[in-house]
Write a structure and sequence with these properties.
Elements: H1 4-37, E1 49-51, H2 59-79, H3 82-101, H4 106-111, H5 130-135, H6 151-154, H7 158-169, H8 175-186, H9 189-200, H10 203-214, H11 219-222, H12 226-246, H13 250-264, H14 274-284, H15 288-308, H16 313-326, H17 334-365, H18 375-396, H19 403-406, H20 408-411, H21 424-441, E2 442-444
Antiparallel strand pairs: 1-2
Length: 446
Amino acid sequence: MNRDLPRATARDLSAVVAAALLVGAAVLAGARIQDRHGTLRVNWPPLLADWAPHTGPGTPAALVVAAAVVAYGPSLAARLSWRPLLLAVWAASLAWTWSLALVDGWHRGVAGQLTTPHEYLRAVDRFRDVPAALRTFDAHILLDSPDNWPAHVAGHPPGATLVFVLLDRAGLGGGGWAGAFVITTGTTAAVAVLIAVRRLADESLARRAAPFLVLAPAAVWVGTSADGFFTAVAAWAVALFASAVTGRHPARTGLGAGLLSGLTVYLSYGLTLFAVIGAAVLLLGTRRLPALPYAVAGFLVVPAVFTALGFDWWEAYRLLVTRYHQGAGGVRPYGYWVWANLACTVLITGPATVAGLRRAGGLLTGVRGLPPRAAAPRLALLAGAALVALLIADLSGMSKAETERIWLPFAFWLLPAAAFLPGARAWLAGQAVLALLLNHLLLTGW
């Protein structure tokens, strides 16, 4: 018997216990701060949620999907051919995310999510003349400006709102279509991450990661916050870039990666930090130089279009910083959220990810170089880059609270670290139980 296995498992469990204590501390300290001072601006810290145990139409389906993925996910991931596996992952992710969303019912869980006063759909009618709306976008960001934008519109570049404007113009207006769009696109992120892991590490690790990408607790917030859509766009940008720096067609995939990367930074200012993940992909690539010029050229397209139409990204971000401190961001205490945000990350990624990241850290600290076929350290580096990007966002102070949705794009790149764990079914069960408890005990803000 290999004596290192029980020791490694004990360390894994110790990491999970430490993460659970972090969450517990965030809940208890947060409740105390909120009750005494009201400065956290969330009802169930560290999440934007309310304590409300409930079941709903999606409960039976969620239980069935969870049981099926735990029982059959690892074996199917090991034996399906690659393309059917990708389709199976998307289908299972759709089933899991839809069922969790419908635990809160159709209106509360899907159709009403993107129609609240702070959301994008409230501003769709103000984009009837898109060039004019872009030219004057900055004039409505500050709270004291005339006809100031709703919080989420002001808090993002206009590309985020334009997505829903285009849906409306296509005849798919309203909260139901918007929610369905977010879930349908957001769940493709799992497929994109698998493609990148296969390209940058190896297929075996991608297959081991597949069930964990399906049963992610993060699915609670993918259905239905717009950040689920942002997650997919960013994930496909990385997947295409991974294909460009490792494949034989760097022009096509490099241009695609650049275009999506350019779009990503016009969906959310914070996603500029995906440059850290992009740097890791470039380091892991075997055909970097042929792909890089195409990726850069593709990246410049979206900023050029928005700039030509009159939108100033840098000025908008400068004004957003002021708007952020005019609202809840100026009240929420940095000293609490700088560590409580990490507790949110534990909740959206789950215990398996915590244990997997512990193993990834061990791999990276014990590796002096990255030989082309050293698959495990390569995956560890990719997950580590996502963690670094997340920590930078945390330290910036521009993500105080609500990171259960804001950090979804980064969280999906932490999930594959669970591929390092033995005993996949037990860890998958832990992931599923956490997601089910979150969705049934709390009414989340998204």
